[in-house]
Structure prediction request, 106 residues.
Amino acid sequence: MKVICEIAGKQYALSEGKVVRTFHLKDAVEGETVDVESVLLAFDEEGNEVKVGRPYLEGAKVTLRVLEHTKGPKIRVMKFRPKKRYRRLYGHRDHITYLKVEKIQV
Prediction:
């Protein structure tokens, strides 16, 4: 079974055993499980059975294990004004969380 669910404001296509990179989940602790009930769509791999939520499926739940909290790659942003000797360099790294799908209940 595969599902499309909403985690931290974004939609992800999930199947059992898949590892997902999401925005930082502050409440989640590494090594523990998180249950997500905002399942939008569920379908089997052959496409014979499709369940659509309005907006979410009732009784559907995805169990995720928190693998790691880390930072993403560094993004460098530069401001520049020609002929004015003005240069500014900024860096930014997003906090991200890696999740592994353990169980899908539909």
The beta strands are 2-7, 10-15, 19-23, 33-36, 39-43, 50-52, 61-71, 75-81, 86-92, 95-105. The first strand starts at residue 2 and ends at 7. The chain has one domain: 2-105. The chain has a mean pLDDT of 94.
